[in-house]
Amino acid sequence: MPTGRRYPDEIRRRAVDEVIERGRKPSEVARDLGMTATTLSTWVRQVQRDRGLLPGPTSEQLARIKELKREVAELRRTNEILKAATGFFAKEADRTRTR
Asked: What is the number of domains present in the chain?
């Protein structure tokens, strides 16, 4: 998991294991660790997706989707620049032909 998150990876793993492996309630584990049950439940659901226990995109798939969205945005910006350049050069070519 990327760094810079509020909770270290080890805390995340321990919290999720408490819920999945030991069957504790997310609200109990969250209270013990000083986090919200919503946060912990989100982590648990994602780990369950990653393990194939729940339907939905895995963490790897979500990362790939994010990467592809970034790439699409960059390609769209590039296309806009190329369209603008094409228009500019087409006008310049017309101007030089009419002289």
From this structure: 2
What distance in Å separates the CA atoms of residue 50 and residue 29, rounded to the nearest whole number? Answer: 21
Determine the structural domain holding residue 1 and report its residue range: 1-56
30: left (phi over 0), alpha (psi -120 to 50) or beta: alpha
Could you report the per-residue pLDDT of 1-13, keeping only the tens digit for each?
444 578 999 999 9
| 47 and 4 in a common domain | yes
What does the pLDDT look like over 73-82, one tens digit per residue?
Answer: 999 999 999 9
Residues 6 or more apart whose CB falls under 8 angstroms from that of 6 comprise none
Instruction: Assess whether 47 and 69 both reside in one domain.
Output: no
Global pTM value: 0.71
Check: CB of residue 26 under 8 Å from CB of residue 44: yes
Same domain, 41 and 73: no
